[in-house]
Amino acid sequence: MAKSAFSVNLEYFLLRFFCALVNVIPYALAMALARGFGWIGFHVVRFNRARTLERIRSVFPEKSPRECRVIAVRSLQNVLQTGVEMMRAPKLDRAWMDRYVKDGSHYKGLLQEFVDEGKGVVIMVPHSGNWYMAAWAMAKYGLPLFAIAARQRNPKLNAWMNRQYGDIEVLDRDNRSTLIQIHQRLRDGRAFAILPDLRVRTPDVEVDFLGGRANVSHAGAAFAVNSGCPIVLAVMTRENGRHVFHYLKALRPDPAADKKEETRRLTREALKLLSDEIVKHPGDWYWYNKRWILEPVKK
Question: How far, in Å, CA of 222 to CA of 46, rounded?
Fold first, then answer.
């Protein structure tokens, strides 16, 4: 259902108002305010507090109530900080990346080696730290990067989001030709950034994740298998005011294996590695996601 013109314009006005506010104040102050609002959101507004704490306790039954609250607060703060950086995205140039993304140019060089093989590369980064920053930084350093995103219901917000992606080419997830475009770009030797940690609504590949079983999409691994390119796994975290790119591993498909079985194998191995890293940095992961990854799928 399309939004009314009034809703479209009001939402866009509010967004631009907050963008102007966030961009006029220093970065450090904007981030401090985001952390403050995150604390208020959890302790005062109690934004999805009960549900989020229940999720954290289900994954970490050994942690105390206080430890679970600390994880939940930090997770909400991280989301708001990510929002601040999204609003400031046009200002985040290469010099900014040199200052705030630890060893960003080093990891770009590592990923470029995979790109130079000529078959492309699938980069899987979960909703941890500022997951956008992994793509923004690599693109600023010159990695030929593309991604997919759902179209926003508000066309003005959708256009704004596309502008904020900057040097990253973003394909419309809802376009019928998108699958063809992804395969073409991988064949051209480009890097495809994808979020692998969303629960899909129909049965797909069951994986071990956060101590439970999750149903996730096989798409990322399928692109790698069909293109013969590697999957690079990484996790972003925030540490001492900087973004840290945790390179985990590169998985390569076996060209002699059955494609369906190889896709399932790579999906399971990738999600297991990402899960282990999220457990090490739980405060950086997005526990507030509506599509809770460990929620059973209705069959």
Answer: 40
Segment 163-216, tens digit of pLDDT: 999 999 999 998 989 999 999 999 999 999 999 999 998 999 999 999 999 999
Identify the CA nearest to 128 among candidates 17, 54, 239: 239
Map tokens 């040097």 to a residue: 167
pTM over 0.90: yes
Q: Does residue 168 come out as left (phi exceeding 0), alpha (psi in the -120 to 50 range) or beta? A: beta
Instruction: Say which DSSP state 271 is in.
Output: H
**Distance, CA of 12 to CA of 137 (rounded, Å):** 27
Q: Which residues contact 77 (CB under 8 A, 6 or more apart)?
A: 34, 35, 38, 39
* pLDDT, averaged across the chain: 96
pLDDT for 298:
77
Contact 218, 263 (CB under 8 A): yes
Residue bearing the bigger pLDDT, 1 or 137: 137
Residue pair 255/228 in contact (Cβ under 8 Å)? The answer is yes
Query: Which residue from 224, 188, 241 is spatially nearest to 233, judged by alpha carbons?
Result: 224
Give pLDDT tens digits for 95-153. Answer: 999 999 999 999 999 999 999 999 999 999 999 999 999 999 999 999 999 999 999 99
Residue linked to tokens 């981030």: 31
99-103 CB contacts, 8 Å cutoff, 24+ apart? 100/241, 100/242, 100/243, 101/133, 101/137, 101/242, 101/243, 101/245, 102/239, 102/242, 102/243, 102/244, 102/245, 103/245
Helix (H, G, I), strand (E, B) or coil at 232: strand
3-state secondary structure of 33: helix
Q: How far apart are CA 243 and CA 29, in angstroms?
A: 17
Q: Round to whole Å and give the CA distance between 166 and 164.
A: 5
